[in-house]
Every structure is written in structure tokens, then in C-alpha cells.
Design brief:
It is a single chain. With 316 residues, the chain is α/β, with parallel strands linked by helices. It has a single domain (27-227, 235-304), classed as HUPs (Rossmann fold), CATH 3.40.50. It contains twelve helices and ten strands. The strands form three sheets. It has a six-stranded mixed β-sheet with strand order 5-4-3-6-8-7, sandwiched between helices. Helix 5 crosses helix 6 (135-153), helix 5 crosses helix 12 (298-306) and helix 7 (165-177) crosses helix 10. The model has no long low-confidence stretch (mean pLDDT 92). The structure holds adenosine monophosphate (AMP), FE2/S2 (inorganic) cluster (FES) and zinc ion (2 copies). Residues 81, 121, 135-136, 139, 229, 231-232 line the site of FE2/S2 (inorganic) cluster (FES).
Amino acid sequence: MRCRICGAPAAINMRQHKLALCRAHFVDWIPEQTERAIDHYKMADRGEKLLVAVSGGKDSLALWDVLHRLGYAADGVYIDLGIDEGIGYSGKSRALCESFAAARGLNLQVVSVPAVYGASIPDVAKKSMRGRRKPCSVCGLVKRHIMNRICREQGYAALATGHNLDDEAAVLLHNAMTWSGGYLVRQAPVLAATRPGLARKIKPFCRIYERETAAYALMQKIEYIYEECPYSEGSSTLYYKEILNRMEEDRPGAKLQFYLAFLQAKDQGLFAPGASGESDLHECAQCGQPTSAPGKCAFCRLWENATPPGLRPPSP
Ligand code: AMP
Ligand code: FES
Ligand code: ZN
Ligand code: ZN
């Protein structure tokens, strides 16, 4: 197989695009596609200050690399969740983010959940709902809260995450299985900051396959953590990704078509405006972040129930 542009031996064949490229052309193709998505979905303007949420995984580090190459002013934030048993997941991913930033002279902020908030994610999960709450659901809530806080406090125009097409299609399939209207309405490449305390959230890799972000990271020699979070085993997202991969195998492009057709249907009014529940948002009585819960937000209630008295409370 040969590169469509220069005829050199191809490093990757993307069946869904009927496109094979050599290494040099592929590592330029990814930023081009990313920039197209940024423009198409009006994610950000050049000159806006962006915050990239980096986990130490291939997607978010590849995204930071791409945004940097495209000339965006993009700082990084890593949230250390305190998941340290076994392989030392948090410490390892933190070190990879730090060395990535240092090698490129980029600015990385690290927020340690145990140091700032007094307990690790596994500890909070154990103590919340008598241990019936899974670390991953606690983790998602805590990450969203902290990322929004940093973005808001430090005046970033938008928060960029490394969600790729496989992530988006898996979440979409999951939500479509239960017709979760609120989630479906809110699933989009860009979530506007619809009220003052809310950061704009963007997913510049939403049309890029996971296989391609992995190939990009390898070709760019980005060191990333190969292991998944130890709590993700058996997660529904992995299950839906597997199903979609089987469909993709039979019909190249199935994942992309599923996701893009969903966005188009939404644009055409498939879901009623207002189903997202966004209009019910108000400020949390404790931390001031937007919430739909009456009184305090889910983050503040979680922490109140899960941390012993005397530990540092969530910062306002
Ligand atoms: P995940 O929910 O683990 O699939 O991650 C989705 C995206 O969230 C990643 O691509 C990152 O942009 C961001 N993210 C995940 N974990 C962290 C973390 N510990 N610190 C900062 N950002 C993260
Ligand atoms: Fe959050 Fe696994 S529990 S990354
Ligand atoms: Zn080429
Ligand atoms: Zn709160």
C-alpha cells in the first residue's frame, strides 16, 4: 500500500476514508483534520487561551501536541486522582504529563485531589453510599468540577478534552440504548458556556478514530500511559466500543456515520430544546458552580458525605 500523496510506502491505511498515508503525511493530516473540526464546530478562535485536560493517555497528549503545532496558546491541566495501588496509575500518568510539558516548554498545572481536597477518589467512592458508588462515577464528577473551576478562575476561553470518535460513538450508543434525552441533547463537539460560571467545553478530536490518535502518538514519539485506569475494567464504555469495532470491521466508516448522522439529526430538531435541563441550573450554595441539584451541587454533597470531619473542605 502506498501513500496517496507522495507514493512512499504507507504507514497507515484508513479504510473509512479510503486513504493510505506515509508517516510524514499522516502526522500533518491529523492537525489539518483537527483544525477543520475546530473551525466547523466553531470551537475556538486563534488567539484564545485554551486549557487542555491531559490524563497522560494517548488522546489528550496527542491533542495538546496538535494544538501546540497549530499555534494555539494551550496550557495543560492534570488532575491527580490518587489512584496509586497496583501499578501506581496516577503517579505514572502524572510523570508522563510533566515530562511531555517540560520537553516542549509548555505550562502544566497539576491539581492533586488528595492534597487539595483531603481524600483520594477510591477513598471517596468507598465512603459514599456505603461503597456502592463506583470510583469511575465519582471520578467523572470530580474531574468535571475541578476542570470547570480552573477554567473559570483562570480565565481560559475553553476547556479541551481528548475525547475521540470511539469515545463519542460509545457514549452515544449507550445513551441511545436508554434514550436518555438529557444526555443526548448535551452530547456535542462543543458545549457553549451558557451561563457565567460554566466553561466552554470542546472536543477537537471528536471525528478522529482512536486508532488514529494512537498511531499519531506513536509516530510523534509521545510517551503515554498504555494501561487503562484500574477501575475501568468491565466498564460499559469499553463494552460499547467493542460492539462498534465489530460493526466497523464489517462496514468501514460505520462509527463515523453513526456519530455524524446523530449530530445532523440533532441539528434538524430531533430532540426538543429544553430536554437538557440546562435552564434549571443555578449556583451551588457552597462553591458557586452551576448545578441542577437543589441547594448544594453533587460535588459538594459528595465530599460532605465522604470525608471525615477535620479534613480540608472543598475550596470555594
Ligand atoms: P476519560 O474519561 O478517561 O475517557 O477521559 C476523557 C478526557 O478527559 C481525556 O481525553 C482528557 O482530556 C480528560 N481527562 C481524563 N482524565 C484526566 C485527568 N486525570 N486529568 C486531566 N484530564 C483528564
Ligand atoms: Fe477515574 Fe478511573 S476512576 S480514571
Ligand atoms: Zn506521503
Ligand atoms: Zn458545589
